[in-house]
Amino acid sequence: MNKKHLCIIPARMGSSRFPNKPLAKICGIPMIGHIALRACLEPIFDNVVVATCDEEIISYCDSINIKTILTSNKHERATDRTQEATEKLENELNIKFDFITMLQGDEPMVTPQILKKIVETLERYNTPILNLVGKIHDMEEFTSKNCVKITINNNSEALYFSRSPIPSSLNDKIMPIAYKQFGIIGFERSFLDTYSSLKATYLEQIESIDMLRCLENNYKIKILTIDNPIFPVDIKEDILKIEKHFSECKVFDKYRQKFIYNS
Predict the structure, then answer these.
(1) Given 3-state DSSP classes, what are the helix, strand and coil percentages for the chain, each rounded to the nearest 5?
(2) Are 157 and 221 in contact (CB under 8 A)?
């Protein structure tokens, strides 16, 4: 029996570092549009849905025929928003999903190939949580608070996540081998309910990292490392870097003509 896969894209307008970020335009198309349309290019998903508490995002998604779920405006964590949206969609469609891929609303460089790899790895390992990570290549990114760093054990499981530089080297002139978390996380469906039933934890709150709630409650997080040079939009300046990349992007070419909007 085929497993049912859902892609949820949590997004909100109230980012403290970049207000109204989901509707910021990249090559003339709002960022949330890029992300949702790229997810729709991967046929392994039974549904692709944007989860938001903002009517502006819903209105835009309606205009490009992307389904939305209205969620509470009180969520501090994207994972809690994802859980609420998943439950509402299941009730609406009267179905149960087996696996959920949470694709953060600031990852416009995601590709269908990356999403497929997440889904296939989730099924292969049958793991409750799967995080996508990549190597950090420069000191600026390594020291940035916007970049969530991760340390990994020999079983490809997360040891810790932090916005501080980890692992820390005694020799400040040498950058250690380091990894960053991407905003693309796979879940076994039942674990989403478990996550939201847990209280927010101390480290989760001070670091502002969803996955620390899992680690502080002794849940293992499987790690999938990729080599693809993708990066999120954390601040306005990131858009210029992504637009340069999109100028030669074959994935962008697959949807750009149909969804071009005036700048």
Answers:
(1) 35, 20, 45
(2) yes
Report the top-level CATH class of 5-260. alpha beta
**Cβ count within 10 A of residue 244:** 10
**Tokens 């996380």 label which residue?**
185
Q: 89-109 burial string, b = 16+ CB within 10 Å, else e?
A: beeeeeeebbbbbbbbbbbbb
Distance between CA atoms of residues 9 and 46, nearest Å:
14
For the ranges 49-53, 209-213, 226-230, the lowest mean pLDDT is seen at 226-230
* pLDDT of 257 strictly over 90: no
Residues 6 or more apart whose CB falls under 8 angstroms from that of 151 comprise: 158, 159, 160, 166, 167, 179
- Tens digit of pLDDT for each residue in 182-220? 999 999 999 999 999 999 999 999 999 999 999 999 999
Strands 158-162 vs 47-52: parallel, antiparallel or unpaired: unpaired
Partners of 9 in the β-ladder = 50
* Residue ranges with strand state E in the chain: 5-11, 25-26, 29-30, 47-52, 67-70, 99-103, 129-135, 149-152, 158-162, 179-188, 222-225
| 169 contacts: CB under 8 Å, gap ≥ 6 | 175, 176
Give the angle subtended at the CA of 209 by the CAs of 108 and 179, to the nearest 5°: 65
pLDDT per position as a tens digit, 57-101: 999 999 999 999 999 999 999 999 999 999 999 999 999 999 999
Cis peptide before 112 (omega within 30 of 0): no
pTM equals 0.94
What does the alpha-carbon distance between residue 93 and residue 88 come to, in Å, rounded to a whole number?
A: 9
